[in-house]
Specification:
mainly alpha, elongated
Length: 243
């Protein structure tokens, strides 16, 4: 009789503690506070300082540059015969992009500095610091980028470069998300500066520029130990693949 009462008391105590424990667990887990969809406070607010991307109003197309019938994003072209080879073979045809030239602002040193900064971040890995198409990822096996120093791109208008940066070309994808329209024009301005810098002879430079070249030449010799003379070299590279 005593044992039965003891068992009943133990069972009752177990049930009481079980009910209490179960109620506590239900309160913490089953009814855990949470937001309901579309109710106040449930929709995450945009963090302060967020910059919108992809707006058509902030991504204007280049002036007078259209898509060709081939489906590639490129400017219309005019085809001009190249110089006939000495052996009498047929002259090759060079496709020169056409479009509007010039810039929507006056090109200053500050603009070129900004263009250089953006170029070395977004363009140099493929096109190289000299614009010759020998960037680091090309040296690692990626498809060779176009050289800016080939005739087709030397004669191309500034709007063509803007269009390619915006829409991509060949293996190059669009950089519209990386570069604002203003920075795209500044990059194009710096590309023009690269083209000029690689087509000048030492003798054509001003005295202060000659001194700067001589100093850079001296530092290069000290760093690499290889001979390098700016005075005897015409610095325009040639060739390069066309994307």
């Amino acid at each position: 009789m005593f044992k039965a009462r003891t068992r009943n008391a133990a069972l009752a105590a177990t049930l009481i503690f079980g009910v209490i424990g179960g109620a506590a667990c239900r309160q913490d887990m089953h009814d855990n506070p949470k937001y309901k969809p579309y109710r106040d406070g449930a929709i995450r607010e945009i963090p302060e300082g967020t910059v919108s991307r992809g707006s058509l109003a902030l991504n204007p197309v280049a002036p007078k540059v259209t898509q060709s019938g081939s489906g590639q994003n490129t400017a219309p072209v005019q085809v001009t015969p190249a110089t006939s080879p000495a052996d009498g073979a047929a002259a090759t045809q060079v496709a020169i992009p056409v479009g509007e030239d010039g810039f929507p602002f006056k090109v200053t040193k500050a603009i070129l500095d900004r263009g250089q900064n953006r170029y070395e971040i977004s363009c140099a890995p493929c096109h190289g610091k000299l614009g010759d198409g020998n960037g680091m990822i090309v040296m690692r096996g990626f498809r060779k980028a176009s050289s800016y120093h080939q005739e087709r791109l030397i004669k191309a208008p500034s709007s063509y470069f803007y269009d390619v940066i915006t829409n991509g070309f060949g293996a190059m994808y669009s950089y519209a998300d990386q570069l604002t329209p203003e920075d795209r024009w500044k990059v194009v301005a710096y590309i023009r500066a690269l083209q000029l810098s690689q087509s000048l002879n030492y003798s054509e430079l001003a005295d202060k520029d000659k001194r700067a070249v001589d100093e850079a030449d001296r530092k290069l010799k000290e760093k690499t130990g290889t001979p390098h003379s700016a005075q005897t070299a015409q610095v325009r590279p040639t060739g390069g693949e066309s994307n």
